[in-house]
Structures are given as C-alpha cells and as structure tokens.
Fold these 4 entries.
Entry 1:
Amino acid sequence: MIEKCMTLKADLRSFLDDEGNELALTEQAKTVFKFLTKIVTSVSQVNYSEQSFSPINEQPLIDVDLKCNTRADRLSCTGNIKAKNFTIDIIEWHCNICEAAGTISHWQGSLWDKHKPTLH
Ligand SMILES: [Zn+2]
C-alpha cells in the first residue's frame, strides 16, 4: 500500500547508541539513515549563528545533493531533496516532485552536525 501523503518523522537518536554511534541497522534502516544524515550534513553546513537565527520563514531552502529515490529501495522518483531548518532543532525536508517529506529531530551535536560555532 502506498501512502499518499508521506511524512517521515525521524528522530536521529533512534539510529544511535548512547555514545552517538550508529547502531547495527537493517539494510532498510541503513538506507533511510544515510539519506537523513546527508540532509543533516547539508543543512548544518550552512553558516548561521544561533544568536541571529532568523525567522523560520526566512531560512534558506537548501538543495541537498540527494535524489528522492535514495531514501528507500524500489523508488523511481528522480526528484531532488530540498531542506531547511523548520525550527532551530528540527530540519524539514521535501522532494521537489512528489509528496515525500519529513522532519529530522535530535540531530544537533551528532557526528553529522557540521555546524561549528564561529570563532572570532
Ligand atoms: Zn520524490
């Protein structure tokens, strides 16, 4: 059965052990996990300072170098994934073609969080 409106609410912690390392995942979970961490890496790389975090609707939409069909096997959608910070700690992503979308929480401070405090 194919769900029409797919929203994947992912908590990065559910893929990790207490030390923040990747759990032994099933092939299917691994595929999803790779997809999610790629989004986290891309979004957290964008330079912003938390002090001047702009309103949510002004957050830039980021082109993640990721095809929609990489989030699971046997998908044929060739859409590209766009993502942005929905709130400061939740990343929202969606496909630019189909209705696939989701959120990622608890990614901050993970191995894939590329957001480094700016040192001046
Ligand atoms: Zn798609």
Entry 2:
Amino acid sequence: MSFNSILGQGQAKHIIAKALQHGTLPHAYLFYGPESIGKRLLARQLAKALNCTEQGPADACDACQSCIKIEQNIHPDFFLLAPAKSTPTAREAVIKIDAVRNLQSKLGYFPYEGRTKVAIIDSVEKMNPQASNSFLKTLEEPPSSTLLILITASPNQLLPTLVSRCQGIRFHPLPPESIKEILLNQTATDRMEPSEVELRVLRSKGQVSRALDENVAEIAQQRQELIDLLEHLSWDRIDLLFQWSKARARDKDRVTEVLEELMGLLRDIAFLKTQNNSELLLNRDVAHLLRPLASKKSLAGLLKFMDGVQQTLHALSGNANVQLSLENMLLQYCETT
Ligand SMILES: [Zn+2]
C-alpha cells in the first residue's frame, strides 16, 4: 500500500511526504482527529516507508521483508503501545508506567534491522499521570534514529507539555466518496443494497468504524418508532407519551442513543421547514416521512423542543429518573405549536 492508496487525509499525507522528501522529519508527531479515519493506518505506513528496502523512505512497497514484518507487528524496530486493561474486569484500559518504561528501554538501542525505529503510541490520552511524566522525558531527549508517533482522538486531554514537544498533524473525517469506496471494498458487504450503502455513508460522520458497524435494521426500526411517535403524539393521544416513555425507560442503556437519533430527525424536520432540498438531510432516505411532520409545528416550536431533548440528554448523563425525564420531554412536544 502506497501513501496514495490511503483514502482521504490529503493534507496529512502532503506534510509527511514533504518531510520524507527533505529529510526533515521531527522526533515526534501527534496525529489527532476523530476515531477511525486513518490515523493508525498512516502511522504504520510511515513506519514502513522509513524502513522499506525497495521504495523507502519516500514510500512503502508492502512486499519487502521489512514492510511485511511491520504489517505483522514483528519487526524488531517497530513498536506499538496501546492502552490495556490491568485485569479483565478493570473499568478502563490505560497505558501504565511499566509499559512506557519497557518501550523506553527498547528505544535505547540502535535500529536492529531497519534504518529508523518507529514507536506508535495509540490513544496516548490513556496514559496515566506517572506514565505521561515518564514519557515526557523521552520526548525531551529523543533517542537517535527514532520517530515517535502519538495518536489521539482527544488532544485536549493531553498534558500541554507533551503536546508542545510534538509536531501536530490534524486528521479530518473522510469524505462520503471515500467511505463509500471502503464499504464497497469490504467482502462482508458484497451483497449490500445500494440503499444500505447510502444510508451507512450518510450516517458515518466520515468514520470508517461507524460506517461498518452500524446495525442498519435496528436503526431503521428505531427511526420508524420515533417518526410514528412524532406523527401521532398530541394532547389527544397523551397515552402514547406514557407508553413510549415507560417502554424506553426499560432499556436505559440505549436511551441516549435513541435521543440522539431523535435529535437527528428533528434537525432534518427543522431543515425541511426552511429549505426544500432533501439532498442535505441526514435521514435522506426517509425524507418522504419527515416532510409531513415539518408542517405540524412552527420552526420556533421545533427548536424549543430540540432544546428540551438536549436538556434531557444532559439530565440523563447525571442520575435523573429516566421515565420521568422522557415524559417531561414529550410533554414539551405536546405544548409546542
Ligand atoms: Zn517495502
């Protein structure tokens, strides 16, 4: 795989290509941006290019021993550090100081087989404070012939001292055409209907994992349920309010997901009130169901209700009673005109 075959991330690839061409790589990069948009892929590609015996360091061939070993995580000069759970029941995976020390000891040597040692530190925000402080020393006095690539989706959670010692490269959500290409290239999705591909692309937010993992049947059902509710709920059918809230409260773990889905639908309905262009909807495939809903409420009413849904989401992130919160939220929908 050459740099060119990595989809999207033109700016990041350009910066890296220039640095490789001029031999001006920094000691440490910080790749940051949303999950699942190609940060790890590009980091590994860079590690390959730096050590490729055929096309390096400008690019990687993916066929030489060095490229193959890096792909398989068995190259002696390639290191991957990622958060791990200390016990199977631990709540959160973290990067501990022992793991950092272990990496530091390995970086102390000259490259064993390749030209440049590359260490990828994935989800670097998961380093606990001791690990961060220890790692800071490596950044302050970088080992020779070594490139460190720090990866994070949450750069604001990093120590400023850590960020300031890296060259930051921002990664962006992938464009719809790239997500589509990735979906069409997945063997598991061979039989995917074009309408499903479109739905997945629309909902992916430019993130590959979202596009691949989303349970389309479940979403379709969830959306239909919400559309039915918005269509029929009124003072005359207040029974629906209690019915729905009670049913949803039984499935507490998924309430946030359902309310976020509701926000997406409301956003589209509000959008349809101001414009007739359904091409820009998140739920384009059900535009014909949303259009009648747009005439039920005023724009001000819809926006007020969206505000209510947001407040409910916020309340539920605390310890609010789920059923009561949902009932109150839907009462607002009945009240708005
Ligand atoms: Zn190679």
Entry 3:
Amino acid sequence: MRQVLETFMQPFAAFAKLSLSAMTGILALTLITACGSEEPKSDPDSTAIYLKTNGAEKFLIEDGWVRPTSGKMSAAYFTLTNLGQDDNALVSLSSDKAKAVEIHMSEMKDGKSTMRQIQQLPVAAGESALLAPGGLHIMLIGLEAPLAEGDAVDFTALFENGETYQFQLPVRAATSP
Ligand SMILES: [Cu+2]
C-alpha cells in the first residue's frame, strides 16, 4: 500500500517543482517590466540627447523641438552643451526632410523681425549655446512634406573638428512663443 501511495504522489511532486520555477519566472518578468517603465525614453520630461564619439559623451542636446508647419519652412530649437575638453563649433547640418538646413539668427531691424544666416555656432568647452524662438535657430528650408506634431526629424550635424553626429528631434507646438 505504501509503495502505491508513493508512486501516486510522484507526479504531484514534479508538478509542485515545475509550478515553483514557473512562478519564479513570472516574478522575474514582473521585475523587468517594473524597471522598464523607469527608462528615460518613457519619461516625457527627459529630452537629453548625448552625442558620443567612441562611447565618450561630447555634446548634450536638451529641450530640442521642431516647429510644426504645413509650409515649406520650419525651425528647430535646442540647447547645445559642449561636454568635451576643447572649444568647438557647429558648422553645418542636414536633414532628409529638408533641402537645406541653416543656422540662423533672428534680429529686430527697424521694428521688423529679420533673420540672417550665420556660418558657424561656436560652443566653448563646458559652455552651452541656447537656440530659442526670437534668437538663434536651425532653419529647415524646402521641406518635402508638412511637419505635424508627433513627427520626428533626423539631423546630421558637422562640427569644426570634423566629427559628425546624428540625432532626432520631435515635432511639437511651441511651449513659449
Ligand atoms: Cu531662420
């Protein structure tokens, strides 16, 4: 009788073992999911983009955005910080969404807002350049298609030292005019 009972119990013991390991797996999955929700990507306030060379952070782009438009021109704004040890300058930009991308400066002239192209944007080591409405901005000229909120624009930036970086900015309405 004892022999029979042991044989009978064996499958239950195996089942108990299996379900314990399955539960451990479920617990691990839950932890991964919980950690995943803390990634900066899902945080709408986190807009820091690090431009790296061989793993070293060289530039930081913060609060970047592109103005939505149904026309052929738009502007991009961000704060660019030079994290490197050497002075540098943003020399040129390009984007697959626009025929030309220029660095511009807005100015008031005789009571009128005008803008002019500037050849390069210097950023000293440890310093930041602020691009914002009414001042420095990145001009997108000859847009291939309208830019709507929720879209994203890819840029390639060339710096004075010959390094190029790629980054993406979201299209969104201005938070301040
Ligand atoms: Cu402009």
Entry 4:
Amino acid sequence: MPALGGLTLARVLHVHGIPSTVYEAESSPMARARGGMLDIHDYYGQLAVEAAGLMDEFHGLILEGRQQLRLVDRDGTVLLDKADDGTGGRPEVQRGELRQILLDSLPAGTVRWGHKVSGTRTFGDGRHEVTFADGTTVVTSLLVGADGAWYVEVRDGDPDRHRADGGDPAAVPSRLTLSG
Ligand SMILES: Cc1cc2nc3c(=O)[nH]c(=O)nc-3n(C[C@H](O)[C@H](O)[C@H](O)COP(=O)(O)OP(=O)(O)OC[C@H]3O[C@@H](n4cnc5c(N)ncnc54)[C@H](O)[C@@H]3O)c2cc1C
C-alpha cells in the first residue's frame, strides 16, 4: 500500500529506528497516476508530516494561494469568497508529490511492489500471517492495514474480525507488515 497513511507510518517508524516492510498491490511506483489535491491541516496531516521529519520537503510542495475558497451557484453568483489567509493552516499539495517525498524518505527495499494481499489470519500468539495473490505468505508480529477505503482491522486471536466493515476476509487488500 504505498500510499499516504502506510508510507507515513513506515517513515515515522524508520525515524525511530524501527524497520518495516510495506506491501503494495501495484507493480511499481508508476503503475497508476496519483492525481488530486489534498488539504493537509495543521492540526491533523501536518502533525504526521512533522513526526515523519519531512516538513522542509512538505513546504516545498505547497501551492501558494490555494487556501482560497470560493463557492458559486449555477449562475455564477458568488455565495462565499474566502481569501487565502496565508497562515498555512490547510495548504494544498498534490497527492502524488506527497507520496513521492514519502517514498524517497524510506530505505531502499522497504516497499515491496506487486504484492497484492489476498488474506490474513492471526495465530493467536501475537503473530499474523499475510497471504498474497501469488500464494506466498509472510508471518509478522505486527500488522497494520493501510489500504484506504478498504481499511482492515486485525486483532489478536480473533480471525473472524479481519475486516472493519464485516466483509469477506479473503478479499482483504493491503497491509503494512512490521518486521521489527
Ligand atoms: C476523494 C478524497 C479526498 C481526500 N482529501 C483529503 C485531504 O484533502 N486531506 C487529507 O488529509 N486527506 C484526504 N483524504 C484522505 C486520504 O486520502 C487518506 O486518509 C489516505 O490516503 C489514507 O492512506 P492509506 O495509505 O491508508 O490509503 P490509500 O492512500 O487509499 O492507499 C491504499 C493503498 O493500498 C493499495 N492496495 C489496495 N488493495 C491492495 C491489496 N489487496 N494488496 C496490497 N495493496 C493494496 C493501493 O494500491 C493503495 O496504494 C481524501 C480521500 C479521498 C478518497
């Protein structure tokens, strides 16, 4: 899942000397365009960026003036016009660029591309097994789901509660596996 949540966690762990491995279904960093803008709030996303030690790189991504907000109706009548106050409270950045600074900040080999997770199970002793689409498996002592909308929750000793949304565990997507 080399995307924002999982990569940020991997980076914060790395800053603290804790190795981790990130398993991603996509075959390479170029497999899919990561478009779209993100507001990174000072009380939320920026705290994570700071914990990752990447504030300087983050500031280099900020698009000046993009905190301006204007709402118009279908006739073009301006309903709300709020200028960028310049405080940097919720600057906008490109999702793909933010992902790139996170990727660049991790040791080589941290991200394992082309590893689509097809399922997980817990052994009940603090270890978890992750199965990939090609049938290979890894066992880890700590497993974190960072697959966005398909977020998965894994709890020790409770193999039937793999999905926060109650879906089919066999369809479960990506994980971040910590090797430490
Ligand atoms: C439309 C939209 C707008 C948003 N705007 C903002 C914003 O302005 N500011 C903000 O802070 N947050 C915003 N968010 C939230 C933010 O995008 C998420 O919090 C963040 O991306 C979650 O990170 P993640 O790593 O868990 O998941 P994602 O970024 O969704 O990445 C999931 C990753 O899992 C991989 N994956 C999927 N299935 C598998 C599988 N089976 N095996 C292995 N890998 C798999 C995918 O390829 C992908 O790389 C927005 C979200 C959306 C949808």
